[in-house]
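Ticket #4471: structure export looks truncated?
Reporter: QA, pipeline team
Priority: medium

Steps to reproduce: submit the single chain below to the structure queue and open the exported record.
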Amino acid sequence: SLKAETHNFPTTVEPFNGAATGTGGEIRDRMAGGRASVPLAGTAVYMTSYPRTAADRPWEQYSAARPWLYQTPRQILTKASNGASDFGNKFGQPLICGSVLTFEHEGKGDEPTYGFDKVIMLAGGVGYARRSDAQKGTPEPGEEVVLLGGDNYRIGLGGGSVSSVDTGRYHSGIELNAVQRANPEMQKRAANLVRALCEEEHNPVVSIHDHGSAGHVNCLSELVEECGGTIDMSALPIGDSTLSAKEIIANESQERMGFLIEEEYIDQVRKIAERERAPLYVVGETTGDAHFAFEQKDGVRPFDLDV
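Actual output as written to the record:
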């Protein structure tokens, strides 16, 4: 498996956690390849405007440094490098290579000055999967929707939309709320379960998906989109009792994974999860009605749409 993804906005706002969750996110995406995949090694690329850290770089002196909204290029390059390496080290995946590019161009006359003001952080990596696990299975009615990983908190909200606009367009409260938190230990527990399942003689995973942008509402809807399904919100692990329904279904987490599991293998999967200390929750099932809903204990459905 080969994977790369950008984590530009989070690294611009909070370089350490932004780059750490960039690395965590691409690992998680490779874990979700096919019906389960094993990550091996990572890479990282950083692009910023000029850091102006040395006097012997005359090309950096042609224009004045911009007024930075969150972090300077020098802070970004230092903290982001530390963050990506930190996650890889704690997870157990070496970050083996990468590159740095700094760029600005001062326009003539009234032309604007260009540069990597919104930093580019590109996390990549390699891994492998068995040929028999390389393609996702087709969901069938009656399969269990399983959540793996930690509790829901008010983090990573709106990251997908905030990352697609100019930094500073939204006020800082919205932008900082969109940054995820790195939890490599929990992701390692999840990865140990994923690896164990794809090393079984029969892999019970029908399909697997990572919880990135938009959290449960994205991940779980994509798991069941060919078939439909219902999620029991009372089965979702809640770490903050003040979360609204929208915050529960849309918070992002770097360590969470979603599965469709054949029903007769649930107990087997649960035993492996307990051995690896990976929190596992059965949160719903596929229905076959081409409809997807989150249902509260009182029967109210805050999310209820055809797929």
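Status: closed, not a bug. The export was complete when the record was re-opened. Leaving a note from the reviewer for reference: Residues 73-91 form the longest helix (19 residues).
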